[in-house]
Design a protein that fits this description.
The chain has a two-stranded antiparallel sheet. It is built from 4 helices and 4 strands, in the order βαβββααα. The radius of gyration is 12 Å and the shape is globular. β2 and β3 form a beta hairpin. By secondary structure, it is an alpha+beta fold.
């Protein structure tokens, strides 16, 4: 098992989770974070830090493997992030939206550390 970041993170990108990760396995896209499944040690300390509950075990909210594949792909492309940064200005307004992947997902990398 590994932890993955799911749809709820898109367009919110709160980074409380990255600061508590003991192995620095988060990677930053323009408007989304991912967890590198080969680096994640399954400790779970990031999960309760996410204010929008976007972090889940891959066995819980990913029956078809979409989010595991997405996290894996972009963790190999995007830069590593290990510190808290400001969330987008409209993050709170979009926190409870559904279907954010189709509306907002961007493949562009973030800045990283």
């Amino acid at each position: 098992m590994t932890y993955i970041v799911t749809d709820a993170c898109i367009a919110c990108k709160y980074t409380d989770c990255v600061e508590v990760c003991p192995v620095d396995c988060f990677y930053e896209g323009e408007n989304f974070l991912v967890i590198h499944p080969d680096e994640c040690i399954d400790c779970g300390v990031c999960e309760p830090e996410c204010p929008v509950e976007a972090i889940k075990p891959d066995t819980e909210d990913d029956p078809d493997g979409k989010w595991l594949a997405l996290n894996t792909k972009f963790a190999d492309i995007w830069p590593n992030i290990t510190r808290i940064i400001d969330a987008p200005p409209d993050a709170d307004a979009r926190a409870n939206e559904t279907g954010k992947f189709d509306k907002y997902f961007s493949e562009k990398p973030g800045e990283g550390d």
